[in-house]
Amino acid sequence: MIDDEQDRPVQFASGVLGWIWPGLGHWKNGEADRGRRIMLGVLGLFLLGLLAGGLDCVDRRDDYLWFIAQAGNGPIAFVADAANNFFLKQGQVGVMLPLSLPGGGTAEINSFKSVGFVNEVGTLFIAMGGLMNVVALLDAMRGPRKVAR
């Protein structure tokens, strides 16, 4: 494969499309098969993370540094965060259970909130999907590949 990088302009539209929906930037560049594989990988990690740890794994307020990596998944990470804040943090679903704190105080925690190892695994999967999508959209911004014949 011959690839002359100086001749190709940066495809900002492909990068934006790749962030809006994983794989869409490659699809725009005419690499539909590559785009489908990226979409399957990124969305697969995102959904597996949600299945493992629940909606609480995407939390911009409490896990801000993790959310920076998760935001690479695109708008679906922001939708999941909004759903977490609306449903779990506001007590719309589940039961708010009292929790005794070591200092003698009490707090309430939602019964659907994941804790411990499963929360960490889900958070990690979603963050890995976001970082993988950032690499993919940077690749999409390089434009379509030129193949030597």
Largest sheet: 2 strands, antiparallel
Mean pLDDT: 86
Any idea how many domains? 1
- What is the strand content? 5-15%
Instruction: Please state the CA-atom Rg, rounded to the nearest Å.
Output: 19 Å
- Which strands sit side by side, in order, in the main sheet? 1-2
Number of strands: 2
Shape: elongated
Helix content: 55-70%
Please report the distance between the alpha carbons of the first and last residues. Answer: 8 Å
Class based on secondary structure composition and strand pairing: mainly alpha
Query: Unreliable stretches, pLDDT < 50, 5 or more residues?
Result: none
- The tally of helices reads 6
How would you spell out the order of helices and strands?
HHHHHEEH
List key phrases describing it.
single chain, about 150 residues, mainly alpha
Short description:
The chain has 149 residues and is mainly alpha-helical. It has helices at residues 12-20, 24-28, 32-53, 64-70, 75-89, 117-140; strands at residues 96-100, 106-110. It has one domain (5-140).
General description of the model:
- There is one protein chain.
- The protein has 149 residues and is mainly α.
- The protein has one domain.
- Helix content is 55%, strand content 7%.
- It has six helices and two strands.
- Strands 1-2 form a two-stranded antiparallel sheet.
- The chain is elongated.
- The mean pLDDT is 86.
